[in-house]
Specification:
With about 375 residues, the protein is α+β, with helices and mostly antiparallel strands. It has helices spanning about 5-25, 125-140, 145-170, 175-195, 195-225, 230-240, 250-285, 290-320, 320-330, 335-340, 340-370, and strands at about 35-55, 60-65, 75-85, 100-105, 110-120.
Length: about 375
């Protein structure tokens, strides 16, 4: 595939992702049980703040915000900010700060019913970091950054606007994520590595890893009695499902699907690295046979594996840090701690992702060696 053509495709996908994100910037909130009330989330900039009450357990501020988007863009709204002695529930604001507001409208009267502060507005911070990331990427890899960003935009849009709506219908989560992974990996590999033997080798390694991840996750999580209900999000979804607001969702399969997603990115990374090495080696020594190319690929992959597994363990350990700290503070025994479903789930996910990494290296090496072996310079 022509490099310029690939870059153009990547840029188009990036712009499409940016447009989709812009459309979602001011998404209406779900309708309330009262048919006369509608609501939307918007960003607001604090223009004034006055203390109303202050004591040892509660402080109340009267705040005025300039609405930055939505139906009331350019207008000011007033609300109160309740600051409790528990910092987990507080939003501390000073003049000029931005916050996310939920505005409820009374449709019958055609006026604002209430304004609530729902946390800090972090959109500008995300945009600045993304711009810095994009500039650094262009500085390091040049025009290929367009295809990388395009692949990112495509995957984000595919995840947000295709996979999540499918999961909401109650469709099998493992099957949905498997199909998403195939499409995501295929487009990502084509954009980044082009239409070549290297791409097919990386795709074969990734596909094999996904199949392994699915099988291992089903077997080990079933044997460990992982239900998937250990997260706050899962419990909320279950409550909504029982109320009849959404379709029934299989949380065990949802947990399996999450493990598959976690494995996908690493499988693509490793498979591309190994396939690229074998491609370069073949160009230097086109007389090497299948066995020799395979062994060289596995040898290089083993170096990648050693560092990536350690990185993987630290990622999952970082996710569980508050839980681990809580166990130490409360003097919970080690046996009790590792048998918490949340902890067991994280341990299994990290081990399963490591299995996938281990399998990806020989699978990609064999596929790449088979495709390149016998070719001449």
């Amino acid at each position: 595939m022509n490099k310029n053509f690939t870059a153009v495709i990547g840029l188009v996908l990036l712009l499409a992702g940016a447009a989709a994100a812009r459309l979602c910037a001011s998404t209406p909130a779900p309708k309330t049980s009262d048919a006369n009330v509608s609501s939307e989330f918007v960003s607001g900039r604090l223009v004034s703040a006055k203390p109303v009450l202050e004591n040892s357990s509660l402080a109340i501020e009267a705040l005025e915000f300039l609405v930055l988007n939505g139906k009331l863009k350019g207008r000011t709204v007033k609300t109160k900010n309740y600051l409790w002695d528990d910092p987990a529930y507080n939003t501390f604001l000073k003049k000029g700060d931005r916050a996310t507001l939920k505005i409820n409208y009374n449709q019958e009267a055609g006026e604002i019913e209430s304004v609530r502060i729902k946390g800090y507005s972090r959109g500008r911070t995300f945009i600045l970091f993304f711009l810095a990331f994009g500039l650094l990427l262009f500085a390091v890899i040049g025009h290929r950054a367009a295809t990388v960003l395009g692949a990112m935009g495509f995957n984000i849009c595919l995840f947000t606007f295709v996979m999540i709506p499918i999961l909401k219908t109650g469709f099998n989560p493992a099957a949905a994520v498997f199909l998403f992974s195939l499409l995501s990996a295929g487009v990502t590999l084509l954009l980044i590595t082009g239409f070549s033997k290297k791409t097919f080798a990386a795709a074969a390694g990734t596909l094999g890893s996904l199949v392994l991840a699915s099988a291992l996750a089903l077997i080990f999580m079933k044997s460990a009695h992982i239900s998937g209900f250990y997260s706050e999000g899962a419990r909320r979804i279950m409550a909504m499902s029982r109320a009849g607001n959404i379709a029934d969702i299989d949380f065990f399969l949802l947990t399996v699907a999450g493990t598959m997603l976690a494995a996908l990115g690493m499988a693509v990374d490793v498979s591309v690295g190994v396939a690229s090495f074998i491609n370069e080696l073949h160009e230097e020594r086109g007389d090497m046979g299948w066995g020799e190319l395979s062994l060289k690929g596995i040898s290089v992959g083993s170096d990648m594996l050693a560092t990536m597994i350690n990185s993987l363990i630290f990622v999952f350990a970082g996710m569980s840090l508050p839980l681990v700290l809580n166990a130490r503070i409360c003097h919970i025994s080690f046996l009790r701690f590792i048998n918490y479903e949340a902890v067991s789930g994280v341990i299994l996910q990290s081990l399963l992702a490591s299995f996938v990494l281990i399998f990806t290296i020989p699978a990609t090496s064999f596929a790449a060696a088979y495709l390149f072996a016998g070719d001449k310079k």
